[in-house]
Amino acid sequence: MSRVVNTVKKIPQRASRRLRNTPSYFFLLWRWVTWLLALITLVSIGGQPLPWLATLLLVITFLQTLVVTLYAPIFQLFLPDLPGRNKLLQLRQRASRKLHLSGKRWRPRPLAVDEEPDIITPLASTRNPYWDFAIYSLDVIICGMVTYYGGYFGVPHFGVGSPFYRYGISTALAAAFTYRYRGGLTAALGYDLFILFGAFFPPTQVPYDALSARDLAGSLLDAPVIAILAAYLATLLESYSRSKRREQDNVRLQIALRRVGETLIEGVSDRVHLLQLSAEQMRKGGHFERLIIALIGNASQGKNDNDYAPEIENCIESGFLASTLPDRSQTLFEHVIQSGEKYRDFEALTGEGSEHAPGIARLYLPFFREGRLYILIGAESTRQTPFEDKQEMFLSTTGSQLVVALENIRLTEQSKELAALAERGRIAREIHDGVAQLVYMLSLNAETSAAQAHRIAEASEDEEDKEVLIPLAQRLDSLVTISKQALWETRQYMFTLKPLISGNMTLTQMLTSQLREFEAISGLPVQFEVEGDEEAANGDRRHTQKMAQVGTAVFRITQEALTNAYKHAEATQLHVYLRYLTGSVEVEICDNGKGLKAEDNKYALAIAEERQRIYSGHGIRGMRERAEELGGIFEVKRGTGNGVSVQATLPN
């Protein structure tokens, strides 16, 4: 019962689809009514001369009409399991593939699952012009033969006198509804040949009557006139259907473009989120079953064409394809990336029993900006034939809009980043020109006061004065230490705010400047050794960005290690080693301070609470996170003496 209900729901209800089915209904009604008229005529003849012939003609025409009706395209929803229908569909698919491979211009209309032909053909269609010609020719022959032998039962003994004359004219209707004027007139001419043959060469045992020009003219003109009228009606219906479809397609295209445009200007600031929303809207707007958008990560990087190598950064998929065929999207994306050209394909489904899903149509389009591949869009649908130009136009239009929107997001992010860098630089300058100068003057004055207090205490001979001056000098020494720590932390904040690697400054130069400044502020001597040669930038923007990230991490780790040694380790000597290895950069900071209290020679955050730590837990955690974010290794271990060694190895 549910199958019947589902089948009834599939019956076309829209007026345009009912109009496209009208010629088929008209043809079948004509054929059945004229067969009944022939039946009544033969039964009503008194003293039937040849009852076996009348019965044979009725049986032949009945079987012909029944087969035509059962295998008519308009009834395939009700009768999908008829014997031979799957074979018929296979013939249609095989014929379509042969015509496609042979390069012939004839091909069926590209249809999707929600579309129908402009005019439903009255007779079964194989989509092979030779098979269709054979079917319609056989129909003409059968109709002509029954009309010819029907001359036994009427006067005159040909044409209008035959009980099957009107039945036979339906063959011209079928050809006219399918092939319009040429097909209808050709079928009418073939039918008229049988009438002429009956007029001049009547069947045996038929008494010869004088040939009447009026009967002959009337018999010969009816079929061509009806064929012309049927072809005219079919042409009007087809023109109306196509016009209606174009109008609907235009409306659908405008609605889809509007929705996609609204999605693009909604203010989405995340590119992945924008791709997700756009993919869904584009899939619905283009009536695709599956739509994939691949964002190329290297689209806007690099100026050297020889180093340009686009890679898929993100891949967003909307919808799914209910098919047993393997997913080829990744392979097709790689093909389009390599060729830089669009890809259009149609893969037939083997063993598919539904006429509405004979194959998978695919369309993959690349989109460029400033000569670089930016995004790839792939669309797939279950269809009867490949995608039309209107699907490609829709993807081209929406894809171009999406490229502009993605580029706007990228430029906005870049503008925000530049604005943030500028603001951080301004704050760093304010600190340098304001707070840092004041703290530096405070440090100098405190150091001068401490030195003067020590001189006075040493020069004084009064013990009571010494007892008063020595604590004061000690307090001033403590103030000097605190002011230097404040100055170093202020400088550290400045380095945190301003960009590190900029212009032509290398990592070696940057660390050298950092260590000299640390020596000047802390008073601790630092030995700096460099092993290997620093790799120069090769023009690849991606590699340059990676080198900048590694350099920043090395600078920050060194900065934190120096601060910890100065504040907590009570060190008197520091060594910094910078090693440029093959494929990596290694920095090691060693001091001769109090060292670690734990028994292990390797620092582990997991057991940090079980040991007394000299170094700050947050600082160690920050250094470790910086190294691991770039895929590096970070260790804190005992030095050669009682000190601590902080080592980080970062791949470049």
In the sheet with the most strands, the strands line up as 2-1-5-4-3
Total strand segments: 10
Gross geometry:
rod-shaped
What level of helicity do the residues show?
55-70%
Low-confidence stretches: 1-5, 7-13, 95-114, 299-303, 352-357, 598-617
Radius of gyration over all CA atoms, rounded: 45 Å
Write the H/E string, N to C: HHHHHHHHEEHEEEHHHHEHEEHEE
Helical stretch tally: 15
What structural class do helix, strand and pairing data support?
alpha+beta
- Give the overall pLDDT as a whole number: 79
Beta-strand percentage range: 5-15%
| Sheet with the most strands, sense and barrel status | 5 strands, antiparallel
Count up the domains.
Answer: 4
Give the distance, in angstroms, between the N- and C-terminal Cα atoms.
Answer: 69 Å
Can you tag this structure with a few keywords?
Beta-Lactamase, 12% strand, 652 residues, 57% helix, alpha+beta, 4 domains, five-stranded mixed sheet, five-stranded antiparallel sheet, Methane Monooxygenase Hydroxylase, Chain G, domain 1, disordered N terminus
